[in-house]
Write a structure and sequence with these properties.
The chain contains four helices and no strands.
């Protein structure tokens, strides 16, 4: 039985349940990729206070560092949230709710990873090359990530609809 919600000519011959199962597995794969990136950045951040130069950071740099640590923790929580939701909804026949909520949660986690990347780059540039370099690096990376993570998918979606 084919999915009534599948676009005509999609080439898929799957039931709604099969589609939801496939979507769930794809989301889990995406979350695994996000988790690895966050773990690497969080691990890097957690080593900084144990470096001798950490004592030389000014108030701005310490504040940026703490914001990054909080972002890493919150982003990790968002990456774990779909698993928690799955545990709560398991065997309640709510897979559509699970997949839909996990999709939204994954978008938030992706935004968290982007903010964490910007903050971490800004901190590293600030400490190594100065405040202007740090702010410039952060703003440039923010602009690049906005294009890559927001504009490109929207543009591709618009193109595909034509």
């Amino acid at each position: 039985m084919s999915d009534p919600d599948a676009p005509a000519g999609s080439g898929r011959n799957e039931t709604r349940e099969e589609q939801l199962d496939r979507n769930w597995m794809e989301l889990l794969q995406e979350l695994r990729v996000l988790q690895t990136g966050v773990q690497i950045l969080a691990g890097f951040l957690l080593t900084l206070p144990f470096q001798q130069r950490f004592k030389e950071l000014d108030d701005f740099q310490i504040g940026l560092y703490l914001v990054n640590v909080a972002l890493a923790a919150l982003t990790t929580a968002f990456i774990l949230l779909p698993v928690s939701v799955h545990r709560r909804l398991f065997r309640h026949r709510l897979k559509e709710t699970l997949v839909s909520s996990a999709d939204n949660i994954t978008k938030i986690a992706l935004g968290g990873v982007a903010c964490l990347s910007v903050g971490t780059a800004a901190l590293v540039f600030d400490v190594t090359a100065g405040r202007t370099a740090g702010l410039t690096a952060g703003l440039v990376l923010l602009a690049v990530l906005a294009v890559l993570l927001v504009y490109v998918p929207l543009h591709l979606h618009r193109q595909a609809r034509r």
